[in-house]
TrEMBL record:
Highest taxon of source: Bacteria
Keyword Membrane belongs to the record: yes
Keywords: Membrane, Transmembrane, Transmembrane helix
UniProt name for this protein: Uncharacterized protein
Organism whose genome encodes this protein: Candidatus Corynebacterium faecigallinarum
Residue ranges of the TM segments: 30-50, 62-84, 96-119
Length: 133
């Protein structure tokens, strides 16, 4: 498991809240498709990254990436919500939301890791024998 790769992929996923913040501050209303497309794009980047890096455990790496993203986006929300919205909001203001956020994003990583593992299995059947979950 590559901690550096997991952390880097978690940081890359911050594009989702950053796009929303920029759009909101610019006065644009994003369609419902934008977050979905961003999530799909990030998932593709994650899958390609763990495959390119030949990560021995893509599922664990991407689950950690999801948790890193959850922690960083929670922190970003805590820092920026008072500045941008004038009030403290988001998961830090509602601590009961933190655990579900961590679980949902770990689940995102689990699904992405499963896709990466399936991709690896289809490309190289012998790679699966060498790659732990």
């Amino acid at each position: 498991m590559s901690w550096l790769l997991a952390c880097a992929l978690g940081v890359i996923a911050l594009i989702r809240p950053v796009v929303r913040i920029i759009a909101t501050q610019a006065g644009y209303e994003l369609s419902a498709a934008v977050p979905v497309l961003l999530t799909l794009g990030i998932t593709v980047v994650w899958v390609v990254a763990v495959d390119s890096a030949r990560t021995p455990s893509p599922v664990l790496t991407l689950m950690i990436a999801g948790v890193v993203y959850a922690v960083l986006s929670t922190g970003l929300s805590g820092v920026l919500s008072p500045i941008l919205d004038g009030e403290f909001s988001g998961p830090p203001a509602n601590p009961v939301a933190i655990i579900p956020m961590l679980l949902i994003n770990a689940g995102w990583g689990l699904v992405a890791g499963g896709i990466a593992l399936t991709f690896r299995r289809r490309v190289s059947p012998t790679a699966l024998r060498r790659a732990p979950l």
